[in-house]
Amino acid sequence: MKTRLTILIWLAVLSVQTWAQNKISHYEYWTDDQSDSRLTTPADDSGAASFSIDLSMQKGGLHTLVMRAVDADGKASPPVSKLYLAGLPQLTDNSIVAAEYWLDGESRRQRVSPSGNALLFDVDAANLSSMLHRLNFRVVDASGKWSPTSTHYFLPTRRPTTGNSIIGAEYWVDGSMERQQVAAQNGLMTFQLDGNTLTGRLHKLNYRVQDASHLWSSTYTRFFTNDRHGADTALIAGYAYRCNEGAVHTVELTPVRVLDLDATTLDLTGQVVPDSIPSSYRFDAATMQVHLTGEVRLSLQVYDTHGHYSATVTDTIAGLPLTLVLDATALQPDVAETAPAPIGGQITSYDYDCAPGDSIHISVEGTSHVDLFDANGQPVNYREVEPAEAPAKAWRSPDASLPTRTLGFTAASSKVYALLYGSLQAVEQTTVTLSVVVPSGIDTPQQITDDTLPPYIYTPSGVCISTRGRTLNQLEPGIYIVKGKKVVVRPGLSR
């Protein structure tokens, strides 16, 4: 008979957002390190799914179940791991039947049986030194399985403790080696500290006590603040706030005793860096702003006229409209622009002044998402250009592990914008190269010779053709684009 583990998955467990236009399609799951043998199970309309795992073939012990959700676009969530035990024998009786114990590093072990629900260890402390010792023990159950070893520390006591009392203490501040002595009165002691000699605000009071047997206790430490100005004279002078992991912004106020922020409005335009950029964002080309909806963690502190700050209060606001202000880098034809990869809620933007009708290739090296927009902020329809068609210079990567994509399109306005976001690697660099393959309004066809033949030329449709090791006679007759000019290769042309 097979033993099966049945799992019920709910969307809330995996913390994957479900959108009306992009719901969960199915789940993928696998056990241990078998990611190459992933299994799938469909999700219902609520995002829930169930599946079973055959445990009969798994070795006894701890195993890992890994799951992830996949949406209708094929995008997968981060994996979630759960641990479970499988293949263990069923025990009918696992009660404790005996124990063994030993002191310190002794190899000789004493065995004892339980008395009711207790284990009694008989330790002869008469011959033990007055130092710290270890009592080690472990127990065994009815199936013969031993527990891990447990260790407890103890000090042998040979003197009477009745009538013992605290007679005094010594104390010092911070790392000072100058220790003050004080006598105890009925077990109470008073420590006198001169706050005028202390610099800074936070300090440590260290002390230890002595009993009538002249034995010292361990050292105790207490923290305290030294406010020589007095809190009664302090007024609230302002507040500081930050959103998510962004910069701290400070607002100065006329000093007041009570601060009411209920009617305060914070202008967060351009100040909030979201945790991620959703694909549903809106780009406004006129203002160079990106508008989206995200979650904001607002942290707030107030400070007084003495420069003392309160504890930080943090609140999370969901579904807040956010605005990001972009500063686009101007692209030049065939000039690579390299910048740090945009991770999290960052967006790297580029623009190029073109002419309507220009045939343009934009090559992006890295794992960032790329969106293209025209001068009016409308999305640009582009196609993925095959490597054989792309300019050779756009495919020479110093890091061969980074993917490179070339997007080809025909400009419909006087400007094009490229917005990059959502890089998968924080340490990578993103390189963007723009090439005008076929300019609009090119000149009248011209003649060309072998001396002026570059290593790469283009057809009027933008297809890149290598001319390395070839002469004019070896080219198909027709019209080509060379260095932004229209040229003609005629039949039978030779030098």
Can you tell me about this structure?
The longest helix is centred in the first third of the chain and has 4 residues, at 11-14. This protein has one helix spanning 11-14, and strands at 4-9, 24-31, 39-42, 49-54, 61-71, 80-86, 96-103, 110-112, 133-141, 150-154, 166-173, 180-183, 202-211, 220-225, 236-243, 249-256, 282-284, 289-304, 313-325, 329-330, 337-340, 347-353, 359-365, 369-374, 383-384, 404-410, 415-421, 429-438, 456-458, 464-466, 478-482, 485-489. With 495 residues, it is mainly β. The strands form nine sheets. Strands 15, 16, 17, 18 and 19 form a five-stranded antiparallel beta sheet that branches. The termini are far apart. It contains one helix and 32 strands. It is extended and about 115 Å long.
Query: What's the number of extended β-strand segments?
Result: 32
Q: Mean pLDDT, rounded to whole units?
A: 80
Q: Compute the gyration radius: what is it?
A: 38 Å
Cα end-to-end separation? 85 Å
Number of helices: 1
